[in-house]
Amino acid sequence: MPEIKENFNKTNEEVSKSQRRRDALELKSLARDLIAMSPSRFARLPVDEAVRAAVEEARRIRSNVARKRQLQFVAKLLRRSEAEPIMQALEAMEQDARQVNVRQHRAEAWRDHLIDRGDAALGELLRQRPAADAQAIRQCIRQARSEASRNRPPAAARALFRLLREMDEAEALPAATDGRS
After folding, report:
1. Mean pLDDT by 10-residue block, N- to C-terminus, for the chain (181 residues)?
2. Is CATH 1.10.60.30 correct for 94-170?
3. Which CATH class is domain 3-82?
4. For 147, which of 9, 28, 68, 152 could close a Cys bridge (C-beta 3.0–4.6 Å)?
């Protein structure tokens, strides 16, 4: 991506027309993503004021033709400004979201493993994490099993999930041994 701006600034002999077109389409896609992005997430991006104003204007436009024209204008502004920091910030946001997702899945796997296997799984967890609150975890497991057997809402399972998620945030939980990560 760093070569996009450089490709637009080079003469026709140095960069092929196809490459310039691919770069322009990539910036148009970035412009489309910026327009569709939530305002709170967009506010965290390092965007020039001209681009920021053009994106906000594009969000207000309801006519499809005018909106398409504004999209082209945002892409043109991105060609003139530095798009690399914006793309890096978007990648960092996506990486953070992926890490949160992995932590959630790990905590869910441990919750299910603990509820299914009970004390044997708790022993595994406590060998890995001796400082964990065994009594609170054991109580949540017992209540979650009871709720499941009586077809009640899984309040205890949610509480167990929250405990495990907090443990994972402090230090990543090991993989649950039943094949889940």
Report:
1. 56 78 91 93 92 94 94 93 89 91 92 91 89 90 92 92 90 72 40
2. yes
3. mainly alpha
4. 152
